[in-house]
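The passage that follows is intended for readers who have already worked through the single-chain material. We present the inputs for a multi-component assembly, then the predicted structure in tokenized form, and finally a short commentary. You are encouraged to pause after the input and sketch how you expect the pieces to fit together before reading on.
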Amino acid sequence: MSTYYVDKFLYTVDRDPEWVWRYQEDPEATVEEWEKEVGQWLNDVEQTSWLTFTDEERRALAAHDYVWLFEHGAHFFLNLTLFIALYDEQYARERGPLSFQREFATRLQHWLGKDYPSVAL
Amino acid sequence: MAELAAVLASTHHPFYYKATTSPPGERPPYADEWQRKVEAYRETLTAARPDVLVMVGADHFHQFFLDNYPQFAIGKAPRYDATFYNEIREFGLPTYVLDGDPDFSGFLLQGLLDRDFDLAVSHELKIDHSIICPIITVRPQADLPVVPIYTNIFVPPMPSPRRFWQLGQAIRQVIEEYPSDKRVAAIGTGHLSLELGGPRQFGEHGPDPDFDRKAIDWMASGNIGAILENVTHESMAGAGNATHGFMDLILMMGIADAQPADYVDELDLFHTREMYMTWYPRGSAA
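Having made your guess, compare it with the prediction:
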């Protein structure tokens, strides 16, 4: 489990319109490309040699599986914001304002009354 | 010495701008009352005739990330760009370039270091909606220099509520020692109970109305004792996973020296309770 690396994915994709678009269009390929182009880099020159996803993390990101990500400690703010970018507009158009956000909450209802998974690293 | 003319503590809500600037057909039903309350609150700052704004907020993973996230940080730059791409995308917020006050920033930084508050310092800081939301609500002309102070209300482990309170007290002391005839307003925003990215988000009310009631009453009456006794990281998490933003309001109580507030207003805005509070350390805005 590399929660840090998952958070790095959510953070760096969310802040860049081109990566948001790529992640929307082809999530599986984008996860792979992101690891090579962004994930393993500390800055434009320096590399971080040891960061990698587990198979489950890679699957969850490729599947836009925000429920799994919540349940495995991805930061709640990053997890919400990026998937709003991907889904809010379409949901709002078809079902009304904030309907994606409400569906997001509904899919996590089994956590009501329990301690949520920690986002601490 | 500089005069602390006003202290403002409020919730911030990035939906306000869009809600109140949408064309009539798209204006949500709650916008009128919200705008009335915000404009009344704005008057509490205007009346204090500030020259410079010390602004307390928290970077929502815009500039700072988990490779290096400061517990407390201060900006010391002549200008601050504001509003990130993903805030424009999600909230439709406008961009700004705010003037800074590097001399005052430096004085605050040194004064806080001298009091054992070791803040990180940024000379290239882009400001996010935690500071732009209050610019939009209480100083929309964005014409005053700012000193931004960022806190960690987001990345566990976080400083304790007591530390936020103590930092607020220290900020007040340093402001009042600043050799200047400027009138300073301190403006900080945070949250009452709040849930983001969890099962209680975007409900009919805030996730914990009982917490909100108590929090407003404690703050309005200056009851820091009750806050430090009752508000812990665990209790905030119980009230909603993003409730830790309340610690920025505790910090503002420190700047206000836990006096009873001079202005208190609130608004039950479906998924959050909004709160607007002002203190005049000299007893009045004049």
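Commentary: Chain B has a mean pLDDT of 97. Chain B touches chain A at residues 28, 60-62, 65-67, 84-86, 89-90, 154-157, 196-203, 237, 241-242 (CB under 8 Å). How closely did your sketch match?
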